[in-house]
Amino acid sequence: MPAHGKHRRPRHRSVSRGLALVGTGGAALALPLIAPAVAGAAPVSGAPEIAARAAAAPASPVAATAVTKAPAAPAAARTYTVVSGDSLSLIAQKKGIQSGWKGLYRANKSAVGDNPSLIHPGLELTLRPGSAKAAPAQPKKAAGTTAEKTSTTDRASRSERRSATPATANTGASAAAPAAAAAVQAAPVAATQYANNLDGWIRESLAIMAQRGIPGSYEGIHRNIMRESSGNPQAINLWDSNAVAGTPSKGLLQVIEPTFLAYHVPGTSMDLFDPIANITAACNYAADRYGSIDNVNGAY
């Protein structure tokens, strides 16, 4: 009699997968049952709160301090355009400039050049130099501002880097400096050459007058020379009151000897007929008596 097959009750084990028993005669096969898993993303519960906090956060202190008031525009300077017959002395008198022609020259040296006696019609002069631009208003400092701390840290770091730079970095430049200075001093300065005619005499006289601070322009000197001597440096007046008194007027600008000696410009010839000495002494006298040779339009 055939023996009856005995079936064992399957034992349950704590596993993550289920087992299915399939009987095949006397043997039992255990087959895994894999249940499909459905993965789902968990909702981010904190997202709405983060967005709300970000929207309510105050603006950065750096952005708040970035807006500053624009500086006020400086007052426009008054100007004057030079016309024929003008000189710095005459302009200073007409416009009531308290510092005189010297102050006017200092304010316009870049436009006039090194010779204050040589100004040309059409030149625009500044009568009152514009004041410096006002500094922009400083924003109120916020306590603990991150930008301010960062700026201070950066400056400190740059200072440390500069102080840490080896002193030998500039050795070559320092050594070369004396040699370069010596080369500059050794180079001869070429003297300006002036023509030996009326134009050259006036221009050389203007250069000497500029060094001595004597006002006058090319046009003013030329105009008076043509009236007094027609450009003849040997001209002499033997008929006027000065001649009668024994001191005739001589030279390009018809200067009498007492005036020439009183207003002679050092460095020029002591010869009254010398064109340069005659012009500079006459202009020195005119500056003392009339403010400038440019203001002389007749016998003086």
Automatic annotation (TrEMBL):
LysM domain boundaries: 78-127
Start and end residues of each stretch annotated as Disordered: 130-172
Pfam families: LysM, SLT
Biased composition (Low complexity): 130-147
Gene3D superfamilies per UniProt: 1.10.530.10, LysM domain (3.10.350.10)
Record field: compositional bias (Basic and acidic residues): 151-163
Name of this chain's protein: LysM peptidoglycan-binding domain-containing protein
Gene source species: Streptomyces zaomyceticus
